[in-house]
Amino acid sequence: MELALRVAQQVSVIFLLCLVGIICERKGILDIPIAKRMTDLVLMMVFPFVLVSAFQLPFTNDMLPEMLLALGLAVVYHLMAGLLVRMAVRPGVSPKADDQVGVERFGAAYSNCGFMGLPLLTAVLGEKGFFYGALFLGVFAVSHWTDGYKIVTGEKHIHLKQAFFNPGCIGLGIGLLLFVLRIQLPIPLLDFTKNMASLNTPVGMIITGVFLSRITPRSVVGDKRVVWVVCLRNVLLPALMLVLIWVCRVPSWFPAAGGVALGNLLSCGCASGINTILFGQKFGGDGHHGAKVVALSTVLSILTLPLLVYIAQLVL
């Protein structure tokens, strides 16, 4: 119960950051074009430092199974999510619905594991939680530029350059290389890296608030497709991952496996990510519809994330 309360407190902080973005947009301090440029700043400049910072831990042999399990669970989740959203979110009967289905599938499959997940994992599991979250984030970066791109655009070909040479994968590669070779950054460079990484959540969630500022509650709650997509994202996909972890008895595999499993569940259970909006706008989908998915998913995560952690503590 204590962990669930800690998660609830951290989600509330994240929601307040989002509220700052809403206020900034309403007062004319920020607008959508500025938010788009700030998103590029975070994704291109801040995001790689987040991953490098996460791997600045002393490497020990007992961390190898933790790293492999975290990566393995992340791969399993993204493969499962990519398959299930295609079956569960079907095209509509109107041309407009065709523009929405890719965004809906993307919003259901891909969580806000960076802006929301990393501070949650740090609050619950400490430095190791940040490490597990970064590994999940690395798999997320590859998946959302390959399968996620295909989901939104409808294309059948994978762009390998986008998949492996995006800022997330570059940061993950540098971070893992330093970690495995046991190279610790000099203190000035380490402090710089951590300061850059600290911008991730506050700036990211303020940007999210800007994108959500013009979404009305009636337009969200009255859209049955949005409600169904958010049920998938916030409830069904994390629940399926929890059942899989329970059936396989993952926490009993080695002493730290329970923490790795909980970290994976928290990353899986976060609200829909901001790229649900950005991918829709950039690749021909309905970005406004994506904003409705992100809005409802973010609000409901105040309830669903603590509940997920509470149930996980009972059954794992």
Account of the 3D structure:
The protein is built from 15 helices and no strands. The protein is mainly alpha-helical and 316 residues long. Helix 4 runs antiparallel to helix 14. It is globular, with a radius of gyration of 18 Å. The two termini are 14 Å apart.
String of helices and strands:
HHHHHHHHHHHHHHH
How would you characterize the largest beta sheet?
A: none
Low-confidence stretches: none
Count of individual beta strands: 0
Residue share in helices?
over 70%
Q: What is the distance, rounded to the nearest whole angstrom, between the alpha carbons of the first and last residues?
A: 14 Å
- Mean pLDDT rating: 87
- Overall morphology: globular
Q: How big is the Rg?
A: 18 Å
Task: Map the helices and strands.
Layout: H1 2-26, H2 32-54, H3 63-88, H4 95-109, H5 117-125, H6 127-153, H7 160-164, H8 167-180, H9 187-197, H10 200-212, H11 217-221, H12 224-247, H13 257-269, H14 275-282, H15 287-315
Helix pairs in contact: 1-5, 1-10, 1-15, 2-8, 2-9, 2-10, 3-4, 3-6, 3-13, 4-6, 4-12, 4-14, 4-15, 5-6, 5-13, 6-13, 12-13, 12-15, 13-15, 14-15
